[in-house]
Design brief:
Structural class: alpha/beta
Low-confidence stretches: 1-15
Number of strands: 20
Number of helices: 16
Distance between the termini: 54 Å
Bound molecules: nicotinamide-adenine-dinucleotide
Shape: globular
Mean pLDDT: 94
Helix content: 40-55%
Largest sheet: 7 strands, mixed
């Protein structure tokens, strides 16, 4: 018989448990029957997810445009294609990931068989942010499905069109017994967090991460926390590609990317770099970026206002235009910034790039070391010596030389932070392992008792001593 499905949740106060509790109870009931375990089921669900993205591509692209003004090209490659790459990679490697590994048994324990095998965890709660509201819900879901888990998705209420599209289309493709989308804001998240989960996967900010960690502690639930921070870009060379790569990574999604270069540390005179950045912005987004279809908007009025306040904290040397009616802020470069203001104390998460001059590479390293460890640290330099010192000395979720953001789309690279920028990583096998229990199994026969030598009384040991 299947376990009591409601046993995991607080007893309902009346005869009618809330809709959330009922959904969770039924989901756990199905998950406990292990329908998510067979490889065939996982493959079928991953294919179904891919089919959903194919058949509703236009719906998702227009939802992303509605939520964040994302142009179709950018939305496709930075959201949909990243998820598709994760699905394809998982489909290609699933058999190998799921396979057990036999390990050597010490002579004293032989004959015996010992193996390590990844096992599903159970039911995973995935809470997502608004900035890549499709990718950051579905990439963790790919890992959850691949690892044989059931999952509940709680998309961000600040990207309501994408949240709505997920709630509408996902149930048409995935097995509703084990996958559900529950829409809502803080109240919904709070109710979800009160339940017992086998893993909670949050992508969001530090404040919410603390709420999630505290809720998880009540049930000793493991968590993955994908957070943010101020990812620095140290610029050592002035090749034309440097400004292009920086501007591309910074201004994609109007700077609302967790691994966007938050600020630049320019070694020596920053004027040539600023000049190149200005030209690049112009070549990317034209004379009037506020109306350019490839340049997105700010997610909410609150974030819009928060970013405008940052204009006061230094000298605007490029951009600075904004339009409150469309929530657009032009790509902006600032210098001579106040290191104690919100611009340099908080994650910027918008299209403002402060450029700070430092005299030496050493000074750049010290500047970074004096601040919390970010999600990524970028070095724009062709010097193997500087690259090697940078990787050795800088503490960050990822170290990238000359290709900011590109680390995100390589499924074999773990994606995650360290310290305040997060806990645990995913993508590819890292996500599969993160949402699996890596289980030990040992098997030995009793037909011949080869362990008899170790039983008490320990006269054999005393003889040796
Ligand atoms: P957020 O932390 O405000 O919200 C994330 C999610 O938490 C949303 O679904 C929201 O509804 C929920 N939430 C809000 N308040 C809650 C509460 N009190 N209890 C429980 N849940 C609650 O983050 P955001 O503003 O949506 O996203 C921006 C942050 O996410 C930035 O810090 C950014 O760096 C980070 N981020 C990280 C990554 C990554 O992969 N590491 C990616 C994108 C964004």
């Amino acid at each position: 018989p299947l376990p009591d499905p409601v046993g995991d949740f607080a007893p309902p106060v009346d005869e009618h448990p809330s809709k959330i509790a009922a959904t969770l109870a039924s989901l756990r009931h199905s998950a406990d029957s292990r329908i998510t375990h067979p490889r065939r089921f996982r493959v079928q669900q991953l294919r179904a997810l891919e089919k959903m993205l194919d058949e509703h591509l236009d719906d998702f692209l227009s939802a992303l445009n509605e939520d964040l003004g994302k142009g179709a090209t950018e939305a496709k490659f930075s959201e949909v294609d990243v998820v598709r790459a994760e699905i394809d990679f998982a489909l290609r490697h699933l058999a190998e990931w799921m396979d057990h590994t036999n390990v050597k048994v010490p002579l004293a324990l032989q004959p015996a068989m010992a193996k390590v095998e990844p096992r599903p965890l159970g039911v995973v709660l995935i809470i997502g942010p608004w900035n890549y509201p499709l990718q950051l819900m579905l990439a963790p879901l790919v890992a959850a499905i691949a690892a044989g888990n059931a999952a509940v998705l709680k998309p961000s209420e600040i990207a309501p069109a994408t949240s709505g599209a997920l709630a509408k289309f996902l149930p048409l493709y995935l097995d509703n017994r084990v996958y559900a989308v529950i829409e809502g804001g803080v109240d919904t998240a709070t109710e979800l967090l009160a339940a017992r989960w086998d893993h909670i996967f949050l992508t969001g900010g530090e404040k919410v991460a603390k709420v999630v960690a505290a809720a998880a502690a009540k049930h000793l639930t493991p968590t993955t926390l994908e957070l943010g921070g101020k990812s620095p870009a140290v610029v050592d060379n002035q090749l034309p590609a440097v400004a292009k790569r920086l501007a591309y990574a910074k201004f994609m999604n109007a700077g609302q990317t967790c691994v966007a270069p938050d600020y630049v540390l320019s070694i020596g005179d920053s004027a040539p770099l600023i000049e190149r950045l200005s030209q690049t912005i112009h070549s990317f987004y034209g004379k009037d970026p506020l109306t350019h279809p490839d340049f997105g908007r700010i997610a909410s009025h609150r974030h819009f206002q928060r970013l405008l306040d940052m204009f006061e904290q230094g000298e605007v040397v490029h951009g600075g235009q904004y339009d409150e009616t469309t929530l657009r802020i032009a790509p902006t470069i600032m210098r001579n910034v106040d290191l104690d203001g919100t611009l340099m104390q908080e994650e910027i998460f918008g299209p403002i790039l402060p450029v700070i001059e430092v005299a030496t590479f050493e000074e750049a390293l010290e500047f970074i070391a004096a601040r919390p460890a970010p999600l990524a640290a970028y070095l724009m330099s062709e010097s193997p010596r500087l690259q090697s010192i940078f990787s050795d000395r800088v503490r960050a979720g990822a170290i990238v030389h000359n290709a900011p953001l590109a680390q995100m789309i390589i499924p074999s690279l773990p994606f995650g932070g360290v310290g305040p920028s997060g806990m645990g990583s995913y993508h590819g096998k890292h996500g599969f392992d993160r949402l699996s229990q890596i289980r030990s199994e040992l098997s030995k026969t009793t037909v011949v008792d080869t362990l008899s030598a170790i039983y008490p009384p320990y006269s054999w040991a005393k003889r040796k001593i």
